[in-house]
Amino acid sequence: MCGVVGYIGKNDAVPILINGLSKLEYRGYDSAGVAVFDEEQKKINLCKTKGRIQNLQDKLYMSPLKGKVGIGHTRWATHGVPSDRNAHPHFSDDSKIAVVHNGIIENYMSLKEELEEKGYNFISETDTETVAHLIDYYYKSGMDILDAVFKVLERIEGSYALGILCRDFPDRIIATRKDSPLVVGIGKNENFIASDMPAILNYTRDVYLIDDNEVAVLTADSIKILNSDKDEVEKKIFKVDWDIEAAEKSGYDHFMLKEIHEQPKVVRDNLNSRLTDEGVVLDNICLGKAELEKINRIYIVACGTAYYAGLVGKYLIERVVRIPVNSEFASEFRYKEPLIDDKTLMIVVSQSGETADTIAAMRLAKEKGARTFGIVNAVGSSIAREADDVLYTLAGPEIAVASTKAFTAQVVSMYLITCHIALELGKMTKDEFLKIKEHMELLPSLVNSILTKEPALKRFMHKYIGSKNVFYIGRGLDYVVSMEGSLKLKEIAYLHSEPYAAGELKHGPIALIEESTLVIGIVTQEELFDKTVSNIRECKARGAKVLAIAMEGNTEILKYADDVFYIPRTYWMLTPLLANIPQQLFAYYMALGLGNDVDKPRNLAKSVTVE
Ligand code: F6R
């Protein structure tokens, strides 16, 4: 969740570190800091502060740091409140070792006690400081610095991406990872470390993807990567092929708005090479009739928004293919003693490919013999590398913390997988598929037409901004859409909202409905329309205001809702993708209207790499 960056080369490190951190700020933004080796003073200097990167820049402006080797960090607090003291980098006692860390050292309490007994003083409340002291301890007890790092890796438990400087070795950065992302950027007479590619894309597109337990030693003109046996490993250079523009705002006020507007292209990119008249081509994945017939159980496992995309998949596969699908929160999956064997297909959905719970669930399934299938956006991420098969969602980098285009791309993947399985298992005829394909190919222009109605959502914001509570209700696929809509409103508008299966309202929550309640009724599933409308009327009768999302041509809904947003008519399967777009824009404008930081909502981080 935190962002880690490092630079070693011939240039001034601070501007490069700050540039990298500003690209990583989506990973955490409650404090930031840099440590730079000053050649003249022969020491490592530190500058860190609570707050955003801008606060760090202001501080650096007052007291500049100079040097050509440095590490930096942007934090999402886990141990200790956001404060100057808890901000990274952390020093060992006599400032010999400086460390930045993403992840959690689970056994830090016992290590801390041990180090305190040895006389080490702890300044912060963080788990990370233990690592700095522990490296220092082993180094001072006579080990080579690299051996000291390896020794510490044996002692610490948990997850980490670490960037390490040692005052005695001003010409190197040491970096390592376990269960937290880390890449090494390869430059000319300069090298980099980063927790995510955007941090270094301005400088290089060639990276090494560091694997768990590997240790990288960087100098300005060399990179050595060692495995846990300290043997040097040959790694393939990974070429980042996205456009740097993809990680910029390109004139939009916020990344979220830009990403919402990218959705027609995202849908097109996901369909283009995969829809053929013969069927669905799932890249290089070999999941044909023979493989599918061996499968008797499907799990779709993910967190948050990705979980809701998975839920769309569950509803579709069950309805179209008629096989049971369990859709599970990754954070709960492991604790249910799930029934997994070699006849299980486990689909994991993740934008970042680094979500700790999703990775853990996937590893458990793998261990028990399941075939694992990742639907992943971040190329080269842990899930992409570890899953047996990967279908990339081709959404490009998603920077706003609230997921929009990645969800849309994940839902497209669910459409593709459903059609693929149904065709292979003879549960869908070629004619049926061709009809759905025709509708799918229209999706990019239908999304576009929804985006042209953006001003309506701004108007609804003005009308409903005073709502105290918001219920999102629907049945069937509309219920799934309501979950995603409600999550988006919570996370960026900080408004209490709940998704509810429309029919369940009267079993309790209707007691909460009053005049200041807004009910967003999603009614795109025509066979469920009458039933959901009765629930909408029950809410209206108790004073709630109702904003409905319905398919074009449905004039009946105008009798019951205060406002209606119409989405274009489409095939029933495809409505979740379209119905969600106005929800994204509504949440966006509500957040703006309430004066919130849309791209960096409080308490959140983009990539949840802790459990
Ligand atoms: C919400 C959101 C989160 C993520 C969740 C999983 O807008 O972005 O709920 O969907 O943290 O993240 P990934 O998809 O990276 O595994």
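^ fructose -6-phosphate complex. Residues 256-441 form a domain with the Rossmann fold fold (CATH 3.40.50.10490). The CA atoms of residues 313 and 414 lie 5 Å apart.
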